[in-house]
Amino acid sequence: MKEEAVGETTTEKNGETQTWHSGDWTPAPRKNVPYNGIEISGTPTYDATTGRFLSADVEIVDCTYDKEGVGSSLDALTVDEGWVGIPPAMQPVSPPVADPKFTASGNLQLRRGSSAILVGVDFSYGLEGQHHEELGFVFGFPTTVAEEPEATGAGPARNRRR
Questions:
Q1: Has this prediction a pTM greater than 0.90?
Q2: CA-CA distance, 71 to 89, in Å (whole number)?
Q3: Please, are residues 138 and 154 in contact by the beta-carbon 8 Å criterion?
Q4: HEC profile for 37-94?
């Protein structure tokens, strides 16, 4: 369990990581592009004293042009932020430049549901001329660490080709 001091609040990144795959995901990468789809994972952070949800670190990995995937992340995303744009993945060069192998563009949000904090998506990705769109709630986090994960009622996002 990792603890960090944030102002006067002690937090714990002790929530279970949740993962979602796009509808075109396959267990093994294909031999040609697109190699695979999108993987979104999130790890919640809870207040160490009250056990209440504070934020989540969310990572988006795009495997369209790279078998290993090209990732982008949103750290400490909160419910209060509303819809947040997915940042481009950056190549590890100086100065950093956007990685053209990262095709995901759109938004993510955390929304408080009746029994969980839900991760909502509204984005597109994929090969030029063959974009897929994802819209909906992909997974949820318990509102407190005392709750069991995945009693959320969140279903799969809708996958559409455009």
A1: no
A2: 6
A3: yes
A4: CEEEEEEEEEECCCCEEEEEEEEEEECCCCCCCEEEEEEEECHHHCCEECCCCEECCC
Beta-carbon contacts of 76 under 8 Å, excluding residues fewer than 6 positions away, are 45, 55, 56, 57
Residue 159 token pair: 């996958």
CA 35 to CA 114: how far, in whole Å? 37
pLDDT attached to residue 15: 79
Read off the tokens for 141.
Answer: 């986090």
Residue partners of 153: CB distance under 8 A and separation at least 6:
113, 115, 116, 140
Please report, as a single letter, which amino acid is at residue 75. D
Q: Which two structure tokens, joined as six digits, stand for 20?
A: 């979602």
The residue type found at 159 is: N
Q: Which ranges of the chain have pLDDT less than 70?
A: 1-14, 146-162
SS3 132: strand
